[in-house]
Amino acid sequence: MKDLKHLIYFENLLQEAHNELVKQAVEEGKMALGYNCYYIPETLLNLPGCFSSRLRAPQCSSTDVANYYMTTRNCPYARSILERAIEGGYNYLDALFGAESCATMERAEEHFFLLKPVKKENFFVTIIDPPMKGDQTNLDYYKAQLKLKVVDELEKRGVDVSEEAMRKAIEDHNEISRIITEIGNYRKLANPTITGYEFHVIQLVSEVCPHYLILPYLQETLEEMRTREPEPKFPFRARVALVGSEVDDPEFTKLIESCGAMVVADRYCFGSFPSREQIEILPGETAFDAICRHYLHWNQCARFMDGMKIDQRHNEVKRLVDEFHADGIIYENMKFCEFWSYEKVLASYIFVNEMDIPCCTIEKEYALGAVGQLRTRFQAFIESLEIKNIQGGK
After folding, report:
1. Most CB within 10 Å of its CB: which of 78, 114, 197, 284?
2. Does residue 30 contact residue 210 with C-beta atoms inside 8 Å?
């Protein structure tokens, strides 16, 4: 396929958190609001005069300093974020909006307050206590947390949090989500006109760059996709859905595809499922109510322990497997992640034994280092998918 016009530019933007477009927005006087988790609605961080910046630590190969504060036996993503903060990688931020999504993430976010690694004047940290169920009681609590620790904190600092401002933020979210979704839907084709790696890069830049600055590039990429010609023959041996916890390195997707399986669906933290669904304001709802309901409903975090949300996680993956015509699932979790490691065991059993979907489970580090074992696992799994297809799905 012909190279996408902006792909190299997008790849360069992902080389550091404080990238070219982030610098431009800061120079224009916009407030840079960092966050680590889907529990913090991206939409609320894109109110007038603000832009969201989902935190990554690209090329972080060592967490020696963060290990001193957090030990080596917990999530390497959280340690990498703290390490990069101590290195000065987030000095552009005006705030960090955290969530107690797990004990390790909470500890890393607390160190933003205790150690003061971000040197920007008036930088502040606020952390919500997110719910663990999806019922009305938990929705009411979620709304109260977001009002107290996100909306009110922004209003204190002069941000417009009016109904009109929130409706405009929803419109902007829906527009960028529409574009990302339409680009991603080309993965459904029998011979897709985009690779999983390319889509991963595009999805990531939409999360880590100011929306108003990245939007023109995404619009142009969508127009390019509408006329892009596929390879003469589907170049992969299988199609897989990548499911699980935190994946913010497109090289991981590239590794899977180099083994012969195209990643056709991305249901993981930093993926387009969830994050690029349309926000609908129901009759009688305020914009704030719609945002809270939307993010609680679509949140797929393994932290949710009630049966309704557990079933939703499994059914959502089954839907993606069907819609994107995946042959199987690669289910990953970040090393030392308790929530996703438990969920991975249960989900793998359900996919294989109840839904008849082949599933390969792996545990990964944050930094993509030695890949020999992963490559062997992926190649063996892809070969098993080929054999199943040859045998008529048996």
Report:
1. 78
2. yes
The Cα angle at residue 124 between residues 119 and 125, in degrees rounded to 5: 115
**124: burial class by Cβ within 10 Å (0-12, 13-18, 19+)?**
middle
**DSSP reduced 3-state for 162:** coil
Average pLDDT over residues 317-338: 97
Residue 251 neighbours by CB under 8 Å, 6+ apart: 368
Banded pLDDT at 59 (limits 50, 70, 90): confident
Domain range spanning residue 152? Answer: 7-162
**Nearest Cα to 243, choosing from 313, 299, 297, 173?**
313
What is the reported pLDDT for 232? 96
> How far apart are alpha carbons 265 and 248 in whole angstroms?
14
Given a contact cutoff of 8 angstroms between Cβ atoms, the answer to whether 19 and 55 are in contact is: no
State the chain's mean pLDDT as an integer: 96
Q: How far apart are CA 177 and CA 209, in angstroms?
A: 14
On whether the CB atoms of residues 128 and 100 are closer than 8 A, the answer is yes
For 230-266, the pLDDT digits (tens) are 999 999 999 999 999 999 999 999 999 999 999 999 9
**Whole-prediction pTM value?**
0.97
Cα-atom radius of gyration of the chain, to the nearest Å? 20
Task: Quote the pLDDT of residue 394.
Answer: 61
CATH classification of the domain holding 352: 3.40.50.11900
One domain for residues 120 and 203: no
H helical segments located in the chain: 7-13, 20-27, 64-70, 76-86, 103-114, 136-146, 152-156, 163-184, 196-208, 211-225, 250-258, 287-298, 307-323, 338-349, 372-390
Residue 316 has pLDDT above 80, yes or no: yes
CATH classification of the domain holding 60: 3.40.50.11890
